[in-house]
Amino acid sequence: MAPPPPHRPYKRPAISDQQRRRDLALQAQSARRADAQARARSLANSLLSPSSAAADTAVEGDSERDHEPTVAEAASKLRGSDARRWFARQIMLPEWMADAPPHLATDWHVFARPAGKRCLVVSCNGITISRLRNGSILHRFPSALPNGSKRDISGPASSYSILDCIFHEPDETYYIIDMICWRGYSLYDCTAEFRFFWVNSKLMETTAGDPPSTYHRYRFSAVPIYECTLQGLQAAYSGSTPYVKDGLLFYNKHAHYLAGITPLALVWKDEACSQYVIDTDSKGQVPSEQHIVLDLQEDGKLTTSDDPPVVFGSLDNEFIQKSNLRPGNLLRFAVKDERVKLVDGKMEISELQFVGKPNRARAFADSHSKALFQYAARHAPLRIEDLVASIQSNNMELESTDVEMEG
């Protein structure tokens, strides 16, 4: 990683409104007064058994009007694509980095993302279950996590832990990238900096990092997390890891664990740290034109998975009926370069070419940031040198501030 000359840091012009949305997200989480403990308990029950979760999480109330449906009750009533999307949105999903944040060195952590299957892992009542983003069970197994096996039940039998992991198949290891709950204590409203500290300290209190055994089917390991200084970025980008890398993840230090897509977590890739920078088709080939997966709405509009969704086009009723499409279907489209414009940080697409339906296991449409990242990757990618320049500019601003204070 060759940094640009230190005396001439370069700031890449912003192409999105990502920074504005980061500021809004931080303000929103500060104003929120949600019951994090109840949220974690409901999620744990729904991950253990969605079909029976409603019975396990009854809400006290004198009438139906007082009854607010819990997370688990909502999950128990969903089926098919709706269930897949619900489970997908229980995980904190990063936006794709379109612009380098202005305070990378001071406000962000960085780590190399393991290649593999993203999942939530819950240990409770002597069993451990991992669920993929679409809600399906990946593994049901004994583990050395708290209450994760019949042999290792400690404390209240009903206490639970929830980890955000990536299962790396080559070494059959769950790499922990975040912690939602530990021994019944919710970490939803804790900062990322605190959660990362707990991942490392609490994991060391168990034998979950030991090699597999009779009562510990899979090994758990924390990923190395760095301050996003020049040294930390270098370590995450170029340093060796026991797993195959699939890009870098950046977490804002002050971010709470927010279910769904958030600009306070960012994913970035290039050819040096990921095998898959530009999306491939069903045959594993990079298509000549950019592809994008969108969600078909009741009114025929085609939207992203963002909240609120971004509308990229629409289909008329005749085409919908002729193609036997239904609202809620995920559809793949090709986009010609000349049909794309960037306006006020948003992509505008004047024409979409229908390709077909994506894999049925897919849970949701592409996000706007992913579409923008894929477009930039084909034309003017955000490079590692741009991230280095952002950190250097941040350092120069801090040095300038220090000089002014001393003066």
UniProtKB/TrEMBL annotation:
<dbReference type="GO" id="GO:0005737">
    <property type="term" value="C:cytoplasm"/>
</dbReference>
<keyword id="KW-0963">Cytoplasm</keyword>
<protein>
    <recommendedName>
        <fullName>Snurportin-1</fullName>
    </recommendedName>
</protein>
<dbReference type="GO" id="GO:0005634">
    <property type="term" value="C:nucleus"/>
</dbReference>
<dbReference type="Pfam" id="PF21974">
    <property type="entry name" value="SPN1_m3Gcap_bd"/>
</dbReference>
<keyword id="KW-0539">Nucleus</keyword>
<dbReference type="InterPro" id="IPR017336">
    <property type="entry name" value="Snurportin-1"/>
</dbReference>
<dbReference type="GO" id="GO:0003723">
    <property type="term" value="F:RNA binding"/>
</dbReference>
<comment type="function">
    <text>Functions as an U snRNP-specific nuclear import adapter. Involved in the trimethylguanosine (m3G)-cap-dependent nuclear import of U snRNPs. Binds specifically to the terminal m3G-cap U snRNAs.</text>
</comment>
<feature type="domain" description="Snurportin-1 m3G cap-binding">
    <location>
        <begin position="90"/>
        <end position="265"/>
    </location>
</feature>
<dbReference type="GO" id="GO:0061015">
    <property type="term" value="P:snRNA import into nucleus"/>
</dbReference>
<keyword id="KW-0813">Transport</keyword>
<comment type="similarity">
    <text>Belongs to the snurportin family.</text>
</comment>
<keyword id="KW-0694">RNA-binding</keyword>
<feature type="region of interest" description="Disordered">
    <location>
        <begin position="1"/>
        <end position="76"/>
    </location>
</feature>
<feature type="compositionally biased region" description="Low complexity">
    <location>
        <begin position="39"/>
        <end position="55"/>
    </location>
</feature>
<dbReference type="InterPro" id="IPR047857">
    <property type="entry name" value="Snurportin1_C"/>
</dbReference>
